[in-house]
Structures are given as structure tokens and as C-alpha cells.
Amino acid sequence: MIAIIKAAKNWPGSSPKILNQEAKELEAAGVDIIQFDEPAFNVFFDEVNDWGIATLEKAIEGLKCETAVHICYGYGIKANTDWKKTLGSEWRQYEEAFPKLQKSMIDIISLECHNSRVPMDLLELIRGKKVMVGAIDVATNTIETPEEVANTLRQALRFVDADKLYPSTNCGMAPLSRRVANGKLQALSAGAAIIRGEL
């Protein structure tokens, strides 16, 4: 079972101690992986350097279960969509945080890869970490084919060791209809099966 805790730009104000307490309660309830959603690491680079990683590590302090962080590019909110329009043909923001995350105590890094403009070779910067590779676009109702999913995973496997790659969605699917979400999850499962067969 995976539990997700939403973070925010004002992490120091929201207190990593409170997040840590919530995480420990979830762990005690039997959660296997606790994922922190971090929507600011791609935008506020100074904060990542000043306190971002340290705060994240305080939030996971003392946990025995696996921990993950999802670095979101943002959906739906006009400020996010407008910002993404300014990023050009390559989204290299992960390049700022990856070296720090690679050295951090976080076990798993969750990323948006399918239909994004993130260069796959940036994943080399977190080699050795477990990586949730987003192979499903949650910003469209179009259901991916298993082969499209498999192709995204194949590209990631050039930079992520096979035993550390977790096929995933780019982000949450709450805005999608149940039919579309189920179709996308079936495609994710089928695409992962193709890759397992190839390995």
C-alpha cells in the first residue's frame, strides 16, 4: 500500500515535524511506501538548495518503510500551464534537484516522463535510486497503447537499472473519468508486461 502526503512551497511553515508525525502514523497503519508530493522543486531552485532537501529528509526521519518523492510539473492551474508554455522544447528543471536527491535518504524518485519534454538522459543523474517512471499522461483523456508505455520504459531503461524501475503514471488521475483511468492503468500494466518479457 502506498500513501501520499502533499507538500507545499512553504514547507518550513508547514513543519516537517508534522509531516513526519503523519508519515509515522501511516507507517504504523501498515503502509509500505510513503510518497511526498513536492510541487515546488522545479520552480524554486534556491529553496531546494537552502532548505528543500533537508526538510524532506526531516519529514522521513525514523521511517522504516520505503519513501518516495514525486516532483510535479503541475496540472490544471492556469499559473502552472502558463509557466510550462515558457519552458521551451526541453524541460531541464529536474537537472537542478537530481544531484541533491541522488545523495538524499529518499528511496524512490517519481517523475513525469510520458509526453513531457523532460530529456530522458537526465535520469542518469539519479542512477542508483529507484525511479517511478511516469509512462502515462494524466493531462489527456487519450488512452495510451501498451506499446507507447513500453517505449517510454525502454527509453528510461538506458538510464535506470531494470531492478530499480517502477512503471507509473505521470501524476494522479483524479481529474479523469473512471473509464479513462481504468484504461490507462490497463495500458500501464500491459506495457510493463511487454518490457518484462523483453528483459
From TrEMBL:
The keyword Transferase applies. GO terms for molecular function: 5-methyltetrahydropteroyltriglutamate-homocysteine S-methyltransferase activity; zinc ion binding. InterPro entries: Met_Synth_C/arc (IPR002629), UROD/MetE-like_sf (IPR038071). Residues 18-188 form the Cobalamin-independent methionine synthase MetE C-terminal/archaeal domain. This is 5-methyltetrahydropteroyltriglutamate--homocysteine S-methyltransferase family protein. Gene3D superfamilies: 3.20.20.210. One of its GO terms (biological process) is methylation. Transmembrane segments: none annotated. Pfam families: Meth_synt_2 (PF01717). The keyword Methyltransferase applies. Its EC number is 2.1.1.14. Keywords: Methyltransferase, Transferase.
